[in-house]
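[step 3/7] inverse_fold.run input=structure_tokens len=1022
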């Protein structure tokens, strides 16, 4: 088989211009070079074409490079990787081939970082300064010193780049590389300061210059030891003047240095330092020294004393300045002065989150950064854009500043260590932290590789195909492919950006942050003394009992206890906003203990935008929900997403019930599952109700669907039992919903008013069919009223009430269809016609349901309602008010039978239906509000009257449900006890301390509704 052509080999190793590369291979400089070894080396270069050009230029300067190549990649791999990744460092080696000596040999897959002291010593020696001197002074100055410093810097940069490019996992090595870049920058500034001291001595004198201490404080990435290959080095300068005549032994002379002169010298030292690394010269500038983060920015003095710094931060500093100081570290100059600066500003940094509006200001700053990105760069930004490095950094720093006030483990400077600390402390979930960390490292790696190419400050993804290909090859180990393409690179980058943005928005705008930031330091620490005092102030009636709950939740060193210590200072305030904080905290403890070490629970409360506050409120405001959550604690997860609170449809519930029944033939086991589904869905509806996801009418419909689904399941089981007992099914049974269940407007724990109808199957004897139907309905009721274990005190079983059947309690429990037809034809009374207005099929045979509803339509929608029937309805209504209102009950506070309550509205609407539904099908509905709306549209009642009646009915319904939700007990009275009234008012949407306003509103609305009722129902005032 013929060997592949040179062109094909060049294409295979990644050349973007194989024809040009082939011409270079024919250059005279490469005469005698082993082509196979050369191509093998180029294959390891991210940019083979650029590497080949640099190799030719190097051989021209140093012919012995041919021998290095001929020795194979075991010796030349480092060189090829470097010149193929960095054109700028290749140019450096062409200018200074004497530094090739450090680039021979294979790369190390597990590199280590250089020692900071060795870097400092090497760069100081490059300018002739003694590294052991307290304040080193260079012997070289001017352009010669600048060039020597820069050459020494770039030599070490080459060494680092080789180790970085050869690492088996460059993302694992990235923190080490960034730390070494920071240490190298600090060493360069130390050497630059030594040069500046020598230059300043010519102007100010050696003694005066020696008397001025200058500490260079690194900010930003350099301060955090996470610097890029090329980046501005942000600094702040601190000076300190000592006596000019101080002797080397420390004895003080008589004349202190004038402060103004000390500032003048310090300014000259700082200016000279920047000039040494940034001024134009025969060697390229390294990077810009940026002092704009100093107090007052560009308008402030370049250097200040420590006292001046602290005075500024105490009086004038803005929130962003403390965020910047988070990473402050002495990187060069007077180390003792720098350490004192760090110690002095640290308390200011960690107290800054308590400033008014701190969290919002940090969030606003991040938005401004994004908004100010030029439109042409927005989609190419690796650093500043959405999903970029800044999203990670701002998120991490905000969490550090808010929680670092009380948790010293978070007081670290670099981002990767901070992410690890936040995860260890439970402030970020483990999965989110791992994703944040890997995404941050990947984005930083892209930034590093781009900057390494030409040693230019850039954060933009390239657009050219060749540049993208070279970048993809330089990170292909991270992309988990041996031949990374530009398309794969961009896909991975966009995927990373999307995930970073999701995590940023989830965590950075977490409401818990703002609340924690506003806590006092004592409150945030949750010490026993501070906690007990705060509990009493918040309104806990038993602070000592509450402390016992807190201690039980936060004891120990587990991650769970750490998360509870983080959450409770905030949750205690939210729980205290409820009607019964003590019961709420006890319920929170029980729910927390029931969930144990469940991984998602405390993470949900920490991360969710709604769950923590919602849970706190419902536990303190609802005995019903608290009791249900104790036996179904996993339902807490619904609070984090409104979609999870949307009630299941009747069809979805019935499908789930059928699936359960198909797998459990034993009736008690099957019904237990049905009742568990009912309990679960009632809890879902109550949580949705308390969270404002459902309105009053939606709650009624949802609860009615839950009960209907349970009846459907119970009927299926009861029919199965009857079929097994009798050897077959003899009759079809229909359960007809009546009353509020028929109108789909029930409340929590309502009984279900029903009637039972059956129709014998062909061939079955009527008496046998009647016996089986009775057995089915008796079993149906028993199945539904069996309590669940463990019991829930506030939960009520579903009781079926058949008192609205023909002849009431004196009539048979279940009748045949024909018996119903005969009864209604001969004996139906007006009140029965009225009751049938809300009849609707609930469970049973569909054909029987259709026939029965056709039958009752002839009764409930009479062609004409005569004066006698109207008079009878009025008489019964008056009798109900007189006889059924509980003795001693205040009619103005009874939401069902009292003035302007449910009964008034419903009886008036039903009278309208009886009068007009025969001619107006729009009125043929079982729902009170739907019928009222139809009556309004037909002009049978004035809109303002309908609006008033609707408001009274909804408010009364809401209060009825609120009584059950609050206390776990049914009550039809507006509470008179203050705490009960407050709880009901809150459930009805009123703010704390508005119970009196709520009470007055109810009394006013129902009084006016009663006036409408009396006028329309009794004809009063007409």
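[step 3/7] decode complete -> sequence:
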């Amino acid at each position: 088989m013929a060997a592949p052509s040179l062109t094909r080999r060049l294409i295979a190793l990644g050349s973007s211009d194989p024809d040009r590369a082939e011409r270079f291979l024919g250059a005279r400089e490469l005469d005698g070079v082993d082509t196979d070894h050369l191509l093998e080396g180029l294959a390891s270069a991210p940019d083979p074409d650029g590497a080949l050009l640099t190799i030719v230029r190097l051989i021209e300067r140093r012919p012995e490079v041919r021998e290095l190549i001929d020795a194979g990649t075991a010796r030349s791999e480092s060189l090829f990787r470097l010149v193929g990744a960095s054109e700028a460092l290749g140019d450096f080696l062409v200018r200074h081939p004497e530094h090739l000596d450090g680039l021979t040999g294979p790369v190390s897959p597990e590199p280590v970082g250089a020692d900071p002291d060795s870097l400092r010593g090497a760069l100081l020696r490059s300018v002739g300064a003694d590294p052991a001197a307290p304040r080193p002074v260079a012997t070289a100055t001017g352009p010669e010193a600048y060039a020597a410093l820069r050459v020494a810097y770039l030599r070490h940069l080459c060494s680092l780049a080789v180790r970085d490019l050869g690492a088996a996992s460059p993302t694992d090595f990235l923190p080490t590389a960034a730390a070494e870049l920071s240490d190298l920058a600090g060493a360069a500034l130390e050497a630059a300061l030594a040069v500046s001291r020598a230059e300043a001595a010519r102007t100010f004198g050696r003694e005066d210059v020696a008397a001025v201490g200058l500490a260079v404080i690194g900010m930003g990435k350099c301060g955090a030891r996470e610097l890029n290959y090329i980046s501005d080095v942000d600094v702040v300068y601190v000076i300190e003047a000592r006596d000019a005549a101080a002797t080397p032994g420390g004895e003080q002379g008589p004349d202190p240095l004038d402060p103004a002169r000390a500032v003048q010298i310090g300014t000259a030292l700082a200016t000279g330092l920047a000039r040494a690394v940034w001024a134009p010269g025969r060697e390229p500038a390294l990077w810009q020294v940026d002092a704009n983060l100093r107090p007052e920015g560009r308008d402030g003095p370049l250097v200040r004393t420590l006292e001046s710094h602290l005075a500024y931060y105490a009086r004038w500093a803005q929130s962003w300045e403390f965020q910047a100081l988070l990473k402050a570290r002495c990187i060069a100059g007077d180390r003792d002065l720098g350490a004192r600066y760090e110690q002095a500003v640290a308390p200011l940094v960690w107290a800054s989150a308590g400033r008014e509006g701190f969290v919002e200001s940090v969030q606003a700053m991040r938005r401004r950064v994004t908004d100010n990105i030029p439109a042409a760069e927005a989609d190419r930004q690796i650093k500043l854009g959405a999903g970029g490095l800044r999203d990670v950094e701002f998120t991490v720093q905000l969490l550090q500043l808010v929680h670092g006030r009380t948790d010293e483990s978070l007081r670290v400077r670099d981002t990767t260590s901070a992410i690890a600390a936040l995860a260890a402390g439970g402030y970020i979930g483990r999965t989110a932290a791992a994703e944040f960390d890997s995404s941050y490292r990947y984005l930083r790696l892209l930034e590093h590789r781009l900057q390494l190419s030409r040693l230019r400050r850039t954060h933009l993804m390239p657009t050219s195909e060749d540049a993208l290909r070279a970048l993809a090859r330089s990170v292909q180990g991270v992309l988990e492919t041996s031949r990374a393409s530009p398309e794969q690179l961009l896909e991975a980058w966009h995927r990373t950006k999307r995930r970073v943005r999701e995590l940023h928005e989830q965590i950075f705008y977490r409401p818990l942050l703002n609340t924690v930031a506003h806590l006092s330091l004592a409150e945030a620490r949750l010490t026993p003394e501070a906690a007990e005092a705060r509990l009493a102030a918040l309104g806990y009636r038993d602070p000592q009992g509450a402390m016992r709950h807190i201690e039980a939740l936060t004891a120990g060193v587990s991650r769970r206890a750490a998360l509870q210590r983080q959450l409770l200072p905030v949750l205690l305030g939210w729980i205290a906003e409820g009607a019964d904080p003590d019961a709420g905290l006890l319920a929170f403890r029980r729910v927390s203990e029931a969930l144990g070490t469940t991984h998602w629970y405390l993470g949900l409360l920490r991360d969710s935008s709604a769950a923590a506050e919602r849970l706190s409120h419902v536990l303190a405001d609802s005995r019903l929900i608290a009791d249900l959550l104790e036996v179904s604690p996993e339902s807490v997860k619904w609070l984090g997403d409104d979609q999870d609170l949307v009630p299941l449809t009747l069809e979805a519930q019935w499908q789930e019930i059928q699936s359960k029944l198909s797998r459990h033939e034993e009736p008690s086991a099957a019904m237990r599952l049905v009742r568990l589904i009912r309990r679960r869905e009632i809890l879902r509806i109550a949580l949705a109700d308390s969270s404002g996801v459902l309105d009053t009418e939606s709650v009624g419909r949802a609860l009615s669907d839950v009960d209907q689904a349970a009846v459907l399941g119970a009927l299926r089981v009861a029919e199965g039992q009857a079929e097994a007992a009798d050897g077959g099914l003899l009759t079809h049974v229909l359960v007809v919903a009546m009353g509020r269940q028929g109108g789909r407007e029930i409340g929590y724990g309502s009984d279900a008013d029903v009637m039972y109808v059956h129709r014998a199957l062909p061939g079955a004897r009527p008496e046998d069919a009647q016996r089986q139907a009775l057995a089915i309905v008796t079993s149906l009721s028993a199945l539904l009223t069996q309590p669940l274990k463990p019991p829930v005190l506030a939960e009520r079983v579903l009781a079926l009430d058949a008192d609205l059947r023909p002849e009431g309690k004196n009539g048979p429990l279940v009748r045949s269809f024909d018996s119903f037809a005969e009864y209604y034809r001969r004996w139906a009374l007006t009140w029965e016609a009225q009751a049938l207005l809300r009849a609707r099929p609930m469970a049973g045979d569909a054909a029987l349901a259709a026939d029965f509803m056709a039958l009752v339509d002839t009764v409930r929608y009479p062609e004409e309602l005569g004066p006698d029937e109207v008079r009878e309805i009025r008489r019964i209504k008056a009798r109900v008010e007189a006889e059924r209102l509980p003795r001693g009950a205040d009619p103005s506070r009874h939401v069902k039978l009292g003035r302007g309550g449910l009964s008034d509205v419903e009886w008036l609407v039903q009278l309208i239906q009886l009068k007009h539904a025969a001619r107006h099908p729009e009125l043929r509905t079982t729902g009170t509000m739907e019928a009222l709306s139809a009556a309004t549209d037909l002009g049978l009642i004035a809109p303002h009257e309908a609006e008033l009646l609707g408001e009274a009915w909804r408010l009364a319904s809401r209060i009825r449900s609120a009584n059950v939700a609050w206390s776990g007990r049914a009550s039809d009275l507006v509470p008179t006890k203050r705490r009960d009234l407050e709880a009901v008012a809150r459930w009805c949407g009123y703010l704390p301390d508005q119970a009196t306003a709520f009470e007055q509103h109810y009394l006013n609305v129902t009084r006016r509704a009663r006036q409408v009722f009396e006028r329309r129902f009794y004809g009063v005032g007409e």
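[step 4/7] annotate
The domain at 650-860 is CATH 3.30.460.10 (Beta Polymerase; domain 2).
The first strand starts at residue 212 and ends at 218.
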